[in-house]
Amino acid sequence: MLKPRRAYSLGMRLSWLFAALTILGLGVISLCIFVVMYVDLEQKADTELRQKTQLVKHLVSEAARTGDMALMRHKLDEYFASHEDMAITLLDRNGTPSYAKLPRSGAFTDARDATIELSQLDKLPSVGSARIALDRSADSKLLRELVIALGVATALGALVISMGGFWIVRRSMAPLVSLARQTSALRVDQLGQRLALTPPVEELQPWIDQFNGLLGRLEQAYVQLEGFNADVAHELRTPLATLIGQSEVELARVRSADELRETLGSNLEELHRLGAIVNDMLFLSRADRGARAAPSPQASLRDEVLEVAEFYEAMLADKRLTCKVDGDARTSFERGLVRRAVSNLLSNAIRYAEPDSAIQVDIARAGATSTILVQNDGAPLSQLELPRLFDRFYRIQASREGGSENHGLGLAIVAAIARMHDGDTIAQCAGGRTSIGFTIGSRL
What we know:
Elements: H1 10-66, H2 69-80, E1 86-91, E2 97-101, E3 111-117, E4 129-135, H3 137-172, H4 174-184, H5 205-252, H6 257-288, E5 299-300, H7 301-311, H8 313-318, E6 322-326, E7 330-331, H9 335-352, E8 358-366, E9 369-377, H10 410-420, E10 425-430, E11 433-440
Parallel strand pairs: 6-8
Antiparallel strand pairs: 1-2, 1-4, 3-4, 5-7, 8-9, 9-11, 10-11
Helix pairs in contact: 1-2, 1-3, 5-6, 6-10, 7-9, 9-10
């Protein structure tokens, strides 16, 4: 089994990376300074040797024309006497030294040599070549001192800058520490709290907004869950209380077969109601977990609505209502789910429609979206009630509950079916006419 990797400190990692980059940067700068100085000293030495070479050639050429070797030696002594860092040796054609000007301190410990061929001067057989040496010990010492100075400067600079970097990173990480402290203080009973930084940090604000949005959704879900639990308990308590009460009464004394049969029939109705509630809750749970409508070939929505409306003909006649279907749209949908949604919408419209009125079902298609809208005349709904029509177990008022067969999940199921078809719900009310429906998207 793999061991979990040990957590690392982002602040320490950034600090050490900053320190490493500082050392690297200062090291590169110091190296550049050293290289520039080294090249400059090399070029200076080459230039000086070249100048001295030209001077020796000139003096030897002059002596070759005049034949005055003594004058040439005198000028060489006079010139090189002021240059203790240089030495010159003249060699005859056999390689034997004929003139030498050497430093008083002896041989150079670090020298740059240059050899000059002078054998072309036939008038001076005593001069065949010249060797010039330039003492580089001062330059070497300067370079060594420069290396030490640059090394010390790099180390001290890196130390100072790195300490400042550690402090800056620590200060910069303070908002994250504050967010961690605020997050740890969140509790279930304080879901209304939100994260905030003062002053706001531009890079962290999107993360804070997303997290606060998540807290808002959690708060809303928690409130809905509490309300859902209360509604479920309320809905199940009534039929269970009825079943228990009737059973206790029947068991309290001897009953005839007809009486028991009547009680069992009443209990069966309550059990059917409980079963319907449980089945609807299971369907909503499956939809909440992301269930999708099964794809199918495109078909007519009007045909489905007409078949459902035919099933409700008896209920429409009983309340002296008529149902009219206008429009059509061909799209891909799951037939069973759409029929169930339309059935819930028609049942809701029939329940709350005024007698002797007409229920209108409009079907339309706009772009890639198809719409089914069921309209009925009835008591007006406020703008505060419309958004809650699709909440689970939501009923506007007791007078509109419509009996025990209505347990407040019909429109919630419509909303779930709309989501399963990549659609949305519609709820409008104007002039006493209520319009409720849903849309079907085009991604199936």
